Amino acid sequence: MKLKVAVIGAGVVGASIARVLSMYENFDVVLLDREPDVGWGASKANTSVIHPGHEEDPGEHPVRARLCVEGNRLWRKWVEELDIPARWPGELMLFYSEEEAQRAARYVELARLNGVPGVRMVWEEVKQIEPWVNPGAVGAVYAPTAGLVSPFEAVAAIVENAVENGVRLLAETEVRGVRVSGGEVCGVETSRGFVEADLVVNAAGLHADRVSHMAGVELDFRIKPRRGEYLLFDENVHVKPRMILHPVPTPVTKGVYAVTTVHGNLMLGPTADDLPEEEKDNLSTTEEGLSRVMEEGSRLLREVPPRDRVIRFFAGLRPEPPRGEWLIKAYDDPWGFVNVAGIRSPGLTAAPAIAGYVLELIAGEYDVRLSRKPSWNPYRVGVTSVRGKSPEEVDQLVKANPDYGAIVCRCRLVSKAEIVETVERMRRIGLERVTVDGVKFRTTAGTGWCQGQFCRWGIALIISQATGTPLHEVTVKRAGYGVGDVKVLLRGGSSC
Ligand SMILES: Cc1cc2nc3c(=O)[nH]c(=O)nc-3n(C[C@H](O)[C@H](O)[C@H](O)COP(=O)(O)OP(=O)(O)OC[C@H]3O[C@@H](n4cnc5c(N)ncnc54)[C@H](O)[C@@H]3O)c2cc1C
Question: Which residue out of 320, 345, 357, 496 has the highest number of ligand 1 atoms within 8 Å of its CB and is therefore the one to mutate?
Fold first, then answer.
């Protein structure tokens, strides 16, 4: 008999768990999210670094350390299987004094303890390894296995593949209660009615504390929002460090990073500011925070582009658990409830490994004899894009489908054909509402220099035609207002 599993939260963690469970005959998985799309929580707005694992102390956080290193290894496979944009440039943890060098040396030792390959101190050669390094840096801890992914595209790809393998996605479905009967979970109460389940996996990010309380467990557990602000520069700025640059971490944060994203933009950030517990939806940016990002970024880089080359600023919220401790646990009382809560950094890195860990936990705790699906398909192919293709290749595409020649986003060179295909894919995974942002995050249309000023209407029109939604009902973000609302258009252009 199949176990019905409800996974709450389609962030990178919940999506990865759904994908891994979909490999087995034993489970019938439904993935729920309160948002109209997947990956709109912490998984969307982060630094996008696949950490090597040398910053995790195995004495303090043994599970986190192990899953971070394993996650880094697994992502190499997942980005290939799922056609996710990624790069593996390595990273430099820069230090500026002898005293800092001594603190940084600890990370070489942690690398040894965690089995992270290739981590070593570099001194003068740091400026050869990465010419954009600030000359004030006297050396760095070099970690060659660090990588970068496109985090939103990663979640979208994982969900597409999970759905292809039998997972059912229920978006715009908020979990409001966990029903328990006779000491066992039997389902979740949602904004759209009751969803029956034998197992409930709580991967609700910032709100996982509330969901845990709904099941009557860990009643003292609280997750706090810790805000991180970012600056994203125009693709055409010449400052493009190849490697990931960051300072020696403090007990609170890994510090402001300088990265060239997988889509070729210089990005600086994040800050780390604790917000009151009730501000879990506060994604506003601050003048003070953004100035700090600029200042700390200029400690890392030989040169920082002027602020008028910033095309976007945004904030993400870390789900910060007590003592930074991830809460991953399967419960006996109520039987069938599993917490995967408080997954703060390096949660993006560890997500594929967390999914494997949760599978083992479920199998062990609930006595499930796992049986692999022979038909499970590990592969997913991304949308064919015009960008990066030679004129001859584009010619071939246009011959096959003239919509490849209709460029909708000129900054990023995204064609109508790509947008139409993306809308189809969004419908195929079960999204009822196709938003302009959903298309933007999947295709990069609207993420360039003009930030959608020119193409947003065009994208909305394609969504309208492809889905039969009246144009004024197509929304940029959540439901409630259409693209026709000028105030929303302006707001949509200036925040995340
Ligand atoms: C500023 C910042 C920088 C970071 N940088 C990195 C980095 O470089 N590398 C790294 O490895 N990690 C990084 N992280 C950490 C990483 O982003 C998170 O650990 C990871 O995204 C957590 O994923 P998640 O799926 O647990 O949470 P989320 O992505 O937040 O997903 C939770 C989902 O649950 C849904 N949900 C919540 N409540 C309900 C409900 N009641 N019903 C239905 N659905 C619900 C939400 O809508 C959301 O989609 C960073 C985080 C931040 C904020």
Answer: 345
CA count, 13 A, side-chain hemisphere, 205: 29
* Residue range(s) defining the domain that contains residue 458: 391-492
Q: Which atom of ligand 1 is nearest to the CA of 175?
A: 42
Residues 237 and 372 in one domain: no
Decide: 382 and 418 in contact? Cβ < 8 Å.
no
Tell me, yes or no, whether 274 and 169 share the same domain: no
Q: What is the pLDDT of residue 488?
A: 43
Per-residue pLDDT at 479: 65
Residue 419: exposure state from Cβ atoms within 10 A (0-12, 13-18, ≥19): buried
| 237/302 same-domain check | yes
Between the CA of 3 and the centroid of ligand 1 the distance, in Å, is 26
Residues 249 and 105 in one domain: yes
Instruction: Indicate the number of domains in the chain.
Output: 3
Give the pLDDT score at 313. 95
What pLDDT is attached to residue 478?
77
Decide whether any atom of ligand 1 lies within 6 Å of the 42 Cβ. Answer: yes
Verify whether residue 51 is a known catalytic residue. yes
- Quote the pLDDT of residue 493: 38
Residues 79 and 198 in one domain: yes
| Whole-number pLDDT of residue 254 | 83
Model pTM score: 0.96
Q: Which residues of the chain have pLDDT under 70?
A: 479-496
CATH of the domain at 27: 3.50.50.60
At residue 489, the pLDDT reads: 44
Given the residues 51, 54, 207, 263, the one annotated as active site: 51
Residue carrying structure tokens 């602000």 = 229
Is residue 277 located within the same domain as residue 172? no
Nearest to 352 by CA among 378, 324, 329, 372: 378
Q: Same domain, yes or no, for 307 and 246?
A: yes
Query: Residue 220 has which token pair?
Result: 């003292």
Q: Checking phi first, is residue 235 left (phi over 0); if not, alpha (psi -120 to 50) or beta? A: alpha
The CATH number for 285's domain is: 3.30.9.10
Domain end position, chosen among 382, 402, 434 = 382
Q: Report d(CA 212, CA 330) in Å as an integer.
A: 12
82 CB within 6 A, ligand 1: no
* Ligand 1, atom 14, residue with closest C-alpha: 345
Using most ligand atoms within 8 A of CB, pick from 17, 31, 43, 191 the residue to mutate for ligand 1.
43
pLDDT at 494: 37
- Atom 18, ligand 1: residue with shortest CA distance: 347
Q: What is the mean pLDDT of the chain?
A: 95
Tell me, yes or no, whether 396 and 424 share the same domain: yes
User: Which of 13, 230, 435 has most ligand 1 atoms within 8 Å of its beta carbon, as the pocket-test mutant?
Assistant: 13
